[in-house]
Amino acid sequence: MGTALLDWYLSAMIWSFVGLCRRIWVLTRLLDDNHFELVHILIKMAVSLKSSGSFCSTPPQWLHSTRDRILYGYSHSNAKECTCKKTKRPAPLCVKATSTKVELDFNDPSWKQKFQEDWDKRFNLPRITDIYDLKPRPTTFSLKKNRSPAGDENGTPMDKWNGYVNSDDRALLKVIKYSSPNSAGAECIDPDCSWVEQWVHRAGPRKEIYYEPEEVKAAIVTCGGLCPGLNDVIRQIVFTLETYGVKNIVGIPFGYRGFFEKGLKEMPLSRHLVENINLAGGSFLGVSRGGAKTSEIVDSIQARRIDMLFVLGGNGTHAGANAIHEECQKRKLKVSVVAVPKTIDNDILLMDKTFGFDTAVEEAQRAINSAYIEARSAYHGIGLVKLMGRSSGFIAMHASLSSGQVDVCLIPEVPFTLDGEYGVLRHLEHLLKTKGFCVVCVAEAAGQELLQKSGATDASGNVILSDIGVHMQQKIKMHFKDIGVPADVKYIDPTYMVRACRANASDAILCTVLGQNAVHGAFAGFSGITSCICNTHYVYLPITEVITVPKRVNPNSRMWHRCLTSTGQPDFH
Question: At which positions is ATP bound (predicted)?
């Protein structure tokens, strides 16, 4: 009797110890190197285990919500509570979280299948055939000028050009398999960073189309602010439409305003008219922010008998294009609305880059080089450059990397302080003592928490940011005056210069492909989509999936780590 009781007791102790070790292993994979936090969690686990004999947790409440969304696809704010029944043996860690738009229980063996089913549903492209029962016809797009001499049995020449994209072709959105959530830049769906294939539709011409080119009226509109490459995209859309056989092509002047503003007439477009517009910056059609109600724009589309609408713009413009698409479907209009992502900020989700970004970085680098020359040529010179980036620091980060002359790069994704022992100003003191000069690059949205907010918005509804560049210029001058150290501050704000120039070679190629693919997508019957580049491949994405939030720099990404290696700057908080 005593031996049996002892065996039972030892067995129970072993199971408890094994369960505890397993939980420690799982938690150490999820945690950063915060030892105090780890000890706190282990104490809570031990108390729970002692009192109940089992351990069941909700998704960890102590994880940082921003990091959770980046790494795991869930945060403590949207995690769902889970329950485990008490058992004699320690229960496994119970994790249940909301990933993207489907609730996932990662202990469910079929969670990957559920995730992929949800993914396929979300990334299934909207089509005009969703509301119309249309039969496709053979495409009129072909680049094979010389037909094969051999013909069919009736003597008709046969075109055997194999330049079409199959409707079932897909491209992988992500290609890196992370082994741990703690890997630099890791983007994980579950806490174990399991590999899950995420396929999106490949862009390009199809063998079958859903429009008669001779009957099509196509319209192009450019919205928001200026951006290098706008004219390149307009040009390629016109060229490709004419290749299909479209004769009626118009441009809508000055953004969405052109649909309703009296006195603004649509502009007939042709290959001859747009042939050389890519040689200049700006927009051949003009741009504007804001616009009328969606219903009024669709009223105008309906009255003008537009069949295809190509919308060039950023996040706000994409949201507007999606609203137009949904209103057209609601009215059962046979209209394809296709967007082309334009923003120098590079802040649209899921895309490698948007057109205009590379050119903006190149121009921003010129401003940094000027600041470097000014700073190095002055006694205790400080070059300060403010670059665009309404919600993200991609331009500042990439321009700092490309120039190699920046000592401090400040972006909105990484908090910083100006004053104090670990502030930016103290670091500038160090740089002047050791180098004799320094260069600072700051994104326009950085450090907004340090400034008084105006609360004003522009015509697109975007919050008007306080001027961090002028604020830093004044703070730097005041600081060095107070400590009795001479400092010559040279402030450069190239905001409008970086977006008013023509596209460089890299952007010109990107604009060419995106413009052509936009037309291919419209003729394939898609609507409510955007033509973009993901993982180096050209694809179509539903607009709804790219407008949820702006894309931001991941402070744990390798690119930001490279920037820090280049600048050598410390943490400023």
Answer: 225, 289-290, 314-317
At 46-98, the pLDDT tens digits run 444 434 443 333 333 333 333 334 333 333 333 333 434 333 343 333 333 33
CA atoms within a 13 Å half-sphere pointing along the CA-CB vector of 32: 9
Domain boundaries, the chain: 208-354+503-547, 357-501
Question: Annotated binding site for ATP: which residue ranges?
Answer: 225, 289-290, 314-317
490: β partners: 383
Of 522 and 52, more confident: 522
Query: For residue 123, how many other CB atoms are within 10 A of its CB?
Result: 20
Task: Tell me the fold of 208-354+503-547.
Answer: Rossmann fold (3.40.50)
Domains 208-354+503-547 and 357-501 share a fold: yes
Annotation: binding site for substrate = 343-345, 388-390, 444, 496-499
Q: Which of 345, 347, 358, 407 is catalytic?
A: 345
Q: What are phi and psi of 209, to 5 degrees?
A: -130, 165
CATH class label, 357-501: alpha beta
**Number of C-beta neighbours around residue 564 at 10 A:** 17
Separation in Å, CA 429 to CA 360, 381, 419, 476, 483 = 31, 11, 12, 10, 10
* Cα atoms found within 13 Å of the Cα of residue 231, Cβ hemisphere only: 20
